[in-house]
Amino acid sequence: MADTTNILTLEHPVLPVLTQRRSPRAYTNQPVPADALKQVFAAASSAASCFGEQPWRYLVGNRETSAEAYNKILNSMGEFNQVWAKNAPVLVVSIAKLHFSHDENPNAWARHDVGQATATLAIQATELGLQIHQMAGFSTDKIREAFSIPAGYEPVAVFTIGYPGDASLLSDALRDKETAARTRKPLAEFVFEGGWPGLQDERYDQADV
């Protein structure tokens, strides 16, 4: 069952699952079934990539079945993120393979393609009633050391996977972020047909959910 908390309202209609995707900080302790995890990562595999390289790699820490990996990922995070992320049942690191397999040339689009795969994963998760919260607040050095990640591969982001929980159980500051109105820039601010416009201002006041 899809999560229908804090639905995003857009200026044009889109698939409902896109408006339901969000980045919660409140999670239940309900484990994520193995089949559901396989589905979300299968969705990632459907994403487009340059030369079909599929440069994404995912390190998964499941609190129930791979607790050591879970703790390694958790310990790589900044304290602010650990406070709430420790409640999610699954933690994941997305990683980019930085060279093409067919000729070993640098893949300048690897991180872009990892982002595409993770975005696709997030939509599948939402369809299953799960949510993910992607984070930049982690130490790539800690991840690299903890998992012996070789040269040529770069950690991109860390994210949670789990069933969204009760925001009232969060601290005041986190609850405010969880329940803040979700808004997005109008299309006119980022879609430019025919040429580059002379925008006067960029807006950075949008809710971070």
UniProtKB/TrEMBL annotation:
Family annotation (CDD domains): TdsD-like
Keywords (A to Z) from UniProt: Oxidoreductase
Q: What InterPro entries does UniProt report for this protein, alphabetically?
A: Nitroreductase, Nitroreductase-like
Extract the signal peptide range.
none
Q: Does the keyword Oxidoreductase apply?
A: yes
Q: Name one GO molecular function term.
A: oxidoreductase activity
The keyword Translocase is assigned to this record:
no
Family listed? Belongs to the nitroreductase family.
Any single Pfam family the record assigns to this protein:
Nitroreductase
Nitroreductase domain: from which residue to which, for each copy?
Answer: 19-77
For this protein, the record's PANTHER family field holds: NAD(P)H NITROREDUCTASE YDGI-RELATED, NADH DEHYDROGENASE_NAD(P)H NITROREDUCTASE XCC3605-RELATED
Please identify the protein, giving its name as recorded. Nitroreductase
Q: Which domain of life is it from?
A: Bacteria
